[in-house]
């Protein structure tokens, strides 16, 4: 899910030049001396007053004056003007730029005292604009035409730097799709069949981009709507208001509802709160609707526009506030405009790194079922992967096999957070598992001597250890054991602190390997006995294989359960699956099972619902949400979940009266990006007006899974969580649909793992892609526009930028950044 390079997004084209000039300029009165370091041999340049001066002469002479030299008595030395380094204009410069254009420019002049001087130039946001490196008397800031926002122009002279600011306001407009624009061609439906292929049109479903609006009356209605649409119930269905999006995603599909139920044309307006970006798009109904006979009730944001908008939003505006992204929609019908309806989104200033691995039931990418579907065809079940930028998934684990063997089915799985190792169970024998080497072409090794051992095991971050799962979701009901992985021996590792009789359900390691968390199903640790009502954590010392310091994270009552814990990248808290209603067995996602996503911290064990993630506005007593009637920290009892909260999710037919209890199986991205922790989870909620069927309809044996109208709601969603949130609060935000997942299949249990790291010298976008942790300019000059490559040292061996590696927060260049799981990240935007 690629965007602009991290060193472009975050800040610097290069470290400001430090120019050192010669202190000896020849005999008194000389007009020429030793050229400035890095300067050309005295080119003539035009200075701000229109005069022409020799850059080398003035740079050298004025540098000597700054160093105390009187210039050898030269009459050129001005002695009655304070000798101060200055850059003009000094005030904030605001320029209006049309997207795709590199004008207007801003001309800066460097001076020392009364005379021009050659300085080194740079900018801190190469995505917004550029300036010649110099050294030169003048620097011309030129916008890129692709990104707006506030940029610092930096001038350097003899170790001193001055900053001047430019605020770029970029704007664009279009009428109809532009197939020549980057990304828009994949958002145009080629046929009716393409609507259901892979992740759908543009990876998000719907009918894609619409055409040009030519009717003058319709254009006027869109520009000047006369009806608010309130009486017609005009409202957004998706995305949700106040969603936090990362950069680099595929553009979302806007979906709306109103009683009229159709439209002739729409107008979308995107703008940042500071005005750094503005775009208006006018679209007729997509042409494919003439073939399907469907209604015009959804439309994507063009991909190139989404990229520009999200790369612009998420930074600070000139007044110091966070620049958020606003969307408004006007619809036209029969010559009248309705709206606008509006939402505001926060854009995290970073992309999400890695690959999503998930279960797919009913996939069209491989056929391996043991029986036939509802329409008497073979279907498939496999582990699929979504790579960055893809509009659909690919098969990672699973092969074709004939009926009735099912030998190629690979479904229930776990993935190490470094993206190296995947364990998948066999569909024809759930006791049997395979391990996949994700760094080497997904090579499969069948673990033939370990039946009923590694299903749903907890993998350490690098995949070298596996702590086995006991009970509930696996055939193994004996005690939990620790193995080296892949296993070299059937004999587990000898551990201390955990008796062999202990049963750990759905265990998970923390990213740093120092803790494990699990559903305490049975056995005794210290004076605490497990009976399936407690979610707990243990400290783990890998050097001695010792478990210690049992901490209760949540205690469940009234028959409810907690499982599938997944650690935050901060290693100090977990998100978990909180089962409200059980059906045929525990911790499942089907047959009427209801669940929410909660979190708890290791320090206090305060279990709290992630209300906004689940689809609820915060409860009035959210600070008490993690405490039971008896006041025991972490106790969860019936009737206390989100008391008084109100759902913001759209209700619908087909048993979608309360989608806030249809959220399951969270896993957490191992890297904090843009100031947020990112949770991916399974949900059976409505996906706007694309997936609206009964939430329990996901088995292809029970319905025609080839029809778009039957698109199952069992899908993967992602939500942002604030870094370092206080226990007992709700740090979550409304979720968004994960693009590129297979549209017509039922999808579950997503793991967002790091992609295999890249060695030095390979192209990159951010340091977390690189084995040695840094992604920097490829050219010898750090300011050269030569692309970015992986390297083993930070720029000038000084410090680490966001998404570059760190050992402590002191390694990060910005004192406000923090080191989270080995990478610097910005604080949560406010």
Which helices and strands appear, and what pairs or packs with what?
Blueprint: H1 6-9, E1 44-46, E2 52-54, H2 55-66, E3 85-88, E4 93-98, E5 106-112, E6 115-116, E7 120-123, E8 129-130, E9 138-143, E10 149-157, E11 160-175, H3 216-223, E12 235-238, E13 244-247, E14 253-257, E15 265-272, E16 277-284, H4 289-292, E17 298-300, H5 303-312, E18 325-333, E19 336-351, E20 355-363, E21 380-386, E22 394-397, E23 410-415, E24 421-426, E25 429-437, E26 443-446, E27 458-459, E28 465-467, E29 482-484, E30 503-509, E31 515-522, E32 524-525, E33 528-529, E34 534-541, E35 546-556, E36 561-567, E37 573-581, E38 594-601, E39 608-609, H6 611-614, E40 635-636, E41 663-668, E42 676-683, E43 715-722, E44 736-737, E45 746-753, E46 774-777, E47 788-791, E48 818-820, E49 823-825
Parallel strand pairs: 4-11, 11-16, 13-19, 35-40
Antiparallel strand pairs: 1-2, 3-5, 5-6, 5-9, 7-10, 8-9, 10-11, 12-14, 14-17, 15-16, 15-18, 18-19, 20-21, 20-45, 21-22, 23-24, 24-25, 25-26, 27-28, 28-29, 30-31, 31-34, 32-33, 34-35, 36-37, 37-38, 38-39, 41-42, 42-43, 43-44, 46-47, 48-49
């Amino acid at each position: 899910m690629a965007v602009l390079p991290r060193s472009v997004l975050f800040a610097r084209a290069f470290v400001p030049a430090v120019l050192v000039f010669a202190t000896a300029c020849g005999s008194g009165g000389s007009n020429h001396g030793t050229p400035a370091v890095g300067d050309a041999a005295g080119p003539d340049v035009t200075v701000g007053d229109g005069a022409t001066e020799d850059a080398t002469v003035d740079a050298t002479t004025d540098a000597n004056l700054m160093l105390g030299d009187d210039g050898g008595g030269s009459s050129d030395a001005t002695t009655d003007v304070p000798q101060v380094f200055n850059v003009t204009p000094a005030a904030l410069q605001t320029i209006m730029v049309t997207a795709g254009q590199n004008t207007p420019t801003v001309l800066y002049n460097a001076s020392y005292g009364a005379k021009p001087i050659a300085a080194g130039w740079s900018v801190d946001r190469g995505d917004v604009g550029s300036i010649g490196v110099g050294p030169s008397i003048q620097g011309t800031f030129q916008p890129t035409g692709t990104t707006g926002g506030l940029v610092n122009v930096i001038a350097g002279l003899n170790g001193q730097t001055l900053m001047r600011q430019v605020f770029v306001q970029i704007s664009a407009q279009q009428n109809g799709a532009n197939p020549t624009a980057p990304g828009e061609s994949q958002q145009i439906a080629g046929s009716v069949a393409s609507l259901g292929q892979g992740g759908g049109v543009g990876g998000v479903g719907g009918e894609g981009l619409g055409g040009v609006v030519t009717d003058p009356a319709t254009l006027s209605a869109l520009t000047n709507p006369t009806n608010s649409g309130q009486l017609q119930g005009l409202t957004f269905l998706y995305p949700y208001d106040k969603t936090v999006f990362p950069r680099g995603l595929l553009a979302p599909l806007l979906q709306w509802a109103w009683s009229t139920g159709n439209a002739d044309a729409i107008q979308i307006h995107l703008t940042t709160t500071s005005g750094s970006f503005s775009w208006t798009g006018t679209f007729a109904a997509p042409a494919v609707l003439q073939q399907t006979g469907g209604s015009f009730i959804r439309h994507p944001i063009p991909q190139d526009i989404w990229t520009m908008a999200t790369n612009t939003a998420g930074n600070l505006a000139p007044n110091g506030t966070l620049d958020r992204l606003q969307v408004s929609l006007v619809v036209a019908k029969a010559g009248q405009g309705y709206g606008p309806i509006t939402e505001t989104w926060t854009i995290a200033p970073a992309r999400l790194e890695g690959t999503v691995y998930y279960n797919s039931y009913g996939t069209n990418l491989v056929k391996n079922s043991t029986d036939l579907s509802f329409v008497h065809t073979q279907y498939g079940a496999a582990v699929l992967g979504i790579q960055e930028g893809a509009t659909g998934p690919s098969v990672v684990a699973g092969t074709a096999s004939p009926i009735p063997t099912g030998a190629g089915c690979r479904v229930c799985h776990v993935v190490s957070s470094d993206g190296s190792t995947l364990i998948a169970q066999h569909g024809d024998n759930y006791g049997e598992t395979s391990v996949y080497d994700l760094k080497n072409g997904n090579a499969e090794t069948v673990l033939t001597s370990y039946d009923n051992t590694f299903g749903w095991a907890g993998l350490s971050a690098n995949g070298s250890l596996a702590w086995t799962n006991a009970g509930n979701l696996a055939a193994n009901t004996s005690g939990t054991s620790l193995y080296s992985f892949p296993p070299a021996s059937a004999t587990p590792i000898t551990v201390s602190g955990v008796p062999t009789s202990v049963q750990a359900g759905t265990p998970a390691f923390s990213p740093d390997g120092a803790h494990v968390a699990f559903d305490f199903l049975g056995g005794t640790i210290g004076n605490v006995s497990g009976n399936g009502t407690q979610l707990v954590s243990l400290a783990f010392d890998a050097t001695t294989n010792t478990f210690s310091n049992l901490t209760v994270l949540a205690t469940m009552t009234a028959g409810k359960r907690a499982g599938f814990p997944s650690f935050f990248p901060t290693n100090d808290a977990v998100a978990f699956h909180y089962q409200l209603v059980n059906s045929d067995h525990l911790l499942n996602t089907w047959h009427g099972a209801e669940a929410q996503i909660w979190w708890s911290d290791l320090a206090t064990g305060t279990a709290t619902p992630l209300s906004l993630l689940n689809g609820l506005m915060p409860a009035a007593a959210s600070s008490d949400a993690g405490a039971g009637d008896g006041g025991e920290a972490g106790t969860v009892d019936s009737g206390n979940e989100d008391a008084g909260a109100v759902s913001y999710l759209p209700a619908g037919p087909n048993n979608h009266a309360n989608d806030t209890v249809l959220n399951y199986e969270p896993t957490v991205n191992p890297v904090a990006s843009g100031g947020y922790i990112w949770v991916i989870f399974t949900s059976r909620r409505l996906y706007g007006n694309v997936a609206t069927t009964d939430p329990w309809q996901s088995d292809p044996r029970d319905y025609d899974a080839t029809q778009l109208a039957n698109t199952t709601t069992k899908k993967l969603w992602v939500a942002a969580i604030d870094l370092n949130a206080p226990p007992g609060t709700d740090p979550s935000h409304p979720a968004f649909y994960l693009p590129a997942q297979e549209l017509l299949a039922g999808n579950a249990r997503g793991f967002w793992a790091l992609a295999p790291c890249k060695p030095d010298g390979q192209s990159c976008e951010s340091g977390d892609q690189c084995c040695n942790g840094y992604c920097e300019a490829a050219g010898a000059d750090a300011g050269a526009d030569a692309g970015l490559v992986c390297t083993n040292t930070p720029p000038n061996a000084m410090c680490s930028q966001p998404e570059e590696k760190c050992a402590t927060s002191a390694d990060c260049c910005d004192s406000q950044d923090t080191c989270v799981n080995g990478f610097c990240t910005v604080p949560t935007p406010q």
